[in-house]
Amino acid sequence: MKKNKVAFISGITGMVGSHLADYIIKNSDWEIVGLIRWRSPLDNISNLLSDINNGKRIKLVYGDLKDSISIDRAIEATTPDYFFHLAAQSFPKTSFDAPLDTMDTNVQGTNRILESLKKYAPEAFVHICSSSEVFGRVPREKLPINEDCTFHPASPYAISKVGTDLIGRFYAEAYNMKVMTTRMFTHTGPRRGDVFAESSFAKQIALAEAGYIKPIIHVGNLKSLRTIADVRDAVRAYFMLLTVKPISGEYYNIGGTFSLEIGELLNYLISLSSIKSDLKIEIDQSRLRPIDADLQVPDTKKFQNHTGWKPEISFEETMLDLLNYWRQKVKNEGNKFLTR
């Protein structure tokens, strides 16, 4: 018999997955299994590698969302009690260049995960991570966005997350599985990938401060309205999703409370810089999407009323931690970064 509960995290090497692993280790006695590909970078879980190497509460298994055999083997071998499905092709802009890869990874990959859980861990509590991008182009009069807002996806990534969202609810209803779905709005913080706007800004500022690039911040659409949450608040919500009165088939919007345009966010990051008076902003046409989900303000009352969760980390703390994360990476690794 298993001594402790087992939580399986797909995408453990990503920003969210790595923070979720940190949270689970600190706030439970669960064992953790993380799904990685053979080529997955381990930077985000570097603080966990000693425990992984010593078999202390956490281990990694190899698999790929495009390979059902590998998924079956991983889940059959570990029979998790909790499954957090965070792995995805998660970059909206990339999805315009690679729509079929995005669909296969996100839609069929989710189907492979749930089919395997149905066979080998049918009693597991399952979190399917959809996205606020499913709502896409929302009229201003419909803000804040609640769970019943119509889907109007504005990228192949968003379309793939509509599929992910619906597949999760289908397995809950059709097979009586304990599947719950979240539509997380913009969340960021340390370890955020540099293809996302605010992390790209922070990285460019850090590189410019260190003298590796000219003091020019290349940007895309600065008028998009976003509500910002901290990734550490997000993973706490995900943990509560599966542990606080979980209801099979339910779906929730989760997000922060501080809304602003991306240009205002950039200005705040610049205000934190040691070279703020030297920094210039330039529009980079390659950073613009063909269409954009430009109004992303959530109504999170459903989840908050059900679990008692609410954001705790301020926008200012999140931005400073993000910038300091990139400053440390630049200090440790020098000019090893594309300024994408």
Structure in words:
It is a single chain. The chain is of the alpha/beta class and 340 residues long. It has 2 domains: 208 residues, NAD(P)-binding Rossmann-like Domain (Rossmann fold); 89 residues, UDP-galactose 4-epimerase, domain 1 (Alpha-Beta Complex), CATH 3.90.25. The protein has 11 helices and 13 strands. The N and C termini lie far apart (49 Å).
- Supply the helix-strand structural class: alpha/beta
The fraction of residues assigned to DSSP E strands is 15-25%
Helix percent band: 40-55%
By CATH, the topology of the largest domain is: Rossmann fold
Q: Provide the CATH architecture of the largest domain.
A: 3-Layer(aba) Sandwich
Number of helices: 11
Average residue-wise pLDDT: 96
Poorly predicted sequence stretches spanning 5 or more consecutive residues:
none
Main sheet makeup:
7 strands, parallel
Short summary of the structure?
With 340 residues, the chain is α/β, with parallel strands linked by helices. The protein folds into two domains: 6-188 and 230-254, NAD(P)-binding Rossmann-like Domain (Rossmann fold); 197-226 and 258-296 and 314-333, UDP-galactose 4-epimerase, domain 1, CATH 3.90.25. The chain contains eleven helices and 13 strands.
Kindly list the characteristics that best describe this protein.
single chain, 340 residues, Rossmann fold, 13 strands
